[in-house]
Design brief:
The chain is α+β, with helices and mostly antiparallel strands. Among the domains are: 57-113; 121-149; 161-191. The protein is built from 3 helices and 5 strands; from the N terminus they run H-E-E-E-E-E-H-H. The protein has helices at residues 2-33, 124-147, 162-206; strands at residues 57-63, 72-78, 84-91, 97-105, 108-113. One of its GO terms (molecular function) is structural constituent of chitin-based larval cuticle. Residues 1-24 form the signal peptide.
Length: 207
Amino acid sequence: MFKSSSVLCLGVLVVLLVSGTTSAARRDVLRQRSPQVVVVEEYEEKVTTVPPPPRPYAFTYSAGRAPGHVDRTHSEVSDGNGVVRGSFSYVDPRNQVRTVEYTADSHGFYPVLSHLPKTTQQTEAVALAEQKHYALYAKIAQEHADAHHGLVVEPKVPKDTVAVAKAKDRHLSLYEKIAQDHARIGAEQEAQRLAFEATSVKYEEEH
């Protein structure tokens, strides 16, 4: 009786263990199949550090391609409120010193080129001479236009030199001789053709 009860209890325990294992496996499968929701929290990091105010500064330097030789300089000054003034110089390929002065602020950069050529103004004497020149030019142009108005200019035939005239005569003589030879040869060929045709007709009539 005791053995039967023990066997029965052991069987029930095995069934419970198997059922528990199966239920746990089913829960794992369902958990894997069910969609997972991931919550992402957004946050904004605020910078509370205030940048330091601009500080005034100044610098200057000079340099060159060889020791003791200076071919460019640069200097700049800032007032600490965003306005910068400076200038730089250099030697161009023509061995002339070029200088640029500039100002920079919140509105932009403004260079001033000191080496630009300056426009010279004409003196009173030069302006008067220029006016006389243009007036004389207009007068001459009008006179030429009036002189050639309605005038038909015939082309001039150049006159032959003695050598050219002799060469032309020889050319014409040779041309006439060749033309006569061609006419004679043509007449002879025509006579031969007529004689051949007459002989052919006579031969056909006889036969």
